[in-house]
Amino acid sequence: MRLVLSDVRMQASMWLWTLLCAAVGAACSAGSVIAMFTAVSAARAAGDARMVSASIALGGNIVFFTVLAAVGIVASTVGLTLMTQRREHALWVILGIPRNRVRSVLRTELVVLGTMAGALAVPLAPLVASIALSQWTTTGLDLHGATVGFQLWHIGTSVLSGVVPCLLGGWGVTRRAARTPEMRAFRDLSDPPARPGVARGILALCLLAGVVGMWIPGLGLELDGGIEQRTAFAFTGNLFLICLLLLMGPWVLTPLMKSWTALVPSRGVAWHLAVQSCRTRAARSVTTVLPFALSLSFVGLFMVMGNVMPGSSAGLDDVLVVLGWVFVVSWVGGLAVIALVGRERTRDSAIVTVAGARPGVLTRSTIYEGAIYAGTAIIFGAISIAVTSVTIAVGARIGVVQVLDGLPWATLGALAGVTLVTTCLALALQALRVSRTVPARALRS
User: Are 261 and 372 in contact (CB under 8 A)?
Assistant: First the structure.
């Protein structure tokens, strides 16, 4: 335990950003669960069976998407944090610490991190739940005066929401950290190639089965429920497909990033440095792109569905009721990743500066990295909208052009612009801080 606390204290600058991401994810997840159970309890107390069903349907969707986003983003952030420290962990082995002890220490750190995130989420979760209930009321649900009151199970839900994503994200990384040869960890300058583990492979097969199982009735069969049932099957199949592609992010987002950046005709030094940095630090790139790709693809899916289903709406306000907390977790996670890899970026910039690059080149290169991250997320979102539009149009028996024409393109463009500005501005601020660092001192640290 002494080694655990000492390592957390020494790496506090990195763990703080991961802790922020985990705490926000835990607060949003636990708050959504609290809001759903509070609404259901109030409806049952009032004897309103219809409102019980409505609260379970709406709350269940919100809980599903929020928990899914929180687990995915927090897990990837935790995994990147541990991967960034692989040289320090190799040094432990060189100093004589047994490999199984290294693994147990790192996993204990994850439990400590998750518990702290859950503790921070305890006072935030009721606030999230109150805001969620207020949103549901504005949509027309009669919640019979439901208010959030403190209960003991709220603590357990918050702590569990903090610990589980941390363990899921770091379990495989801690195992690899204990097995990686020490000299390889010190020698490799680029991120190690991603390898699908058993758990990821099984989950990917399950999601693929879900895609096929939903698309077959949604696209090719005549169902008793008619168009609405076919469209619902097609929607669920697209949801599984997006989750599958993001789960396999290193094998989807990385090739996508390499493909579109190779088509850019620029031959400038700054652009070349940005592209090579993104390709070399593949794990960092995928983890940065993932939160924004997730939020954009989910928004596109819901807007397509709202445009097709009778009586539904594709407006941003309606989407935010379901995906509002997904946005919060995604944006916090993306900014946390950009911030926590600052030390690596500082060393990379110092090496390039010593090699003769001018400060202006490094600043432009860093901003270009933000554009590459945002561009990859936007292209992924555009592809997901195209696939979603085609499949849901087939399920609803309407034209694809009609579906695309009815989408709120101004809103989607604004979301894409916000993504671009967010990543570029965050990296521009980081570039400003890096430009004030003495290269020799950065290389010694």
Answer: yes
Indicate the SS3 state at residue 52. helix
Are 288 and 31 in contact by the 8 Å Cβ rule? The answer is no
**Long-range Cβ contact pairs of 356-359 (< 8 A, separation 24 or more):** 357/269, 357/273, 359/435
| pTM recorded for the entire structure | 0.86
Q: Which helix (H) or strand (E) holds 146?
A: none
Contact 142, 48 (CB under 8 A): yes
For residue 171, give both structure tokens: 């379990």
Query: 228-253 as b/e, with b when 16 or more CB fall inside 10 Å?
Result: ebbbbbbbbbbbbbbbbbbbbbbebb
Is the CB of residue 277 less than 8 Å from the CB of residue 270?
no
3-state helix, strand, coil in the chain (%, to 5): 85, 0, 15
Chain centroid offset of residue 247 CA = 10
DSSP secondary structure code for residue 140 in this structure: T
- Give the residue among 87, 86, 54, 29 at the shortest CA–CA distance from 333: 29
Q: What is the pLDDT of residues 311-341, one digit of tens each?
A: 555 566 777 788 888 889 988 988 888 887 7
- 116: which residues sit within 8 A by CB, 6+ positions away? 19, 23, 162
Q: Using alpha carbons, list the distances in angstroms from residue 271 to 6, 196, 256, 264, 368.
A: 40, 31, 17, 9, 6
Dig out the tokens for 224 from the structure.
Answer: 């008793």
How does DSSP assign 341-353, residue by residue? THHHHHHHHHHHH
8 A C-beta contact, residue 94 and residue 182 = yes
Name the H helices within 143-263: 152-179, 182-187, 198-220, 226-247, 249-262
For the stretch 73-130, pLDDT in tens is 888 888 888 877 777 777 777 777 788 888 888 888 889 889 999 999 999 999 999 9
Q: Are 313 and 407 a contacting pair, CB within 8 Å?
A: no
List the structure tokens of 234.
């097609």
Single-letter amino acid code for the residue at 140: G
Per residue in 390-417, is it b (16+ CB within 10 Å) or e — as a string?
Answer: bbbbbbbebeeeebbebbbeeebeebbe
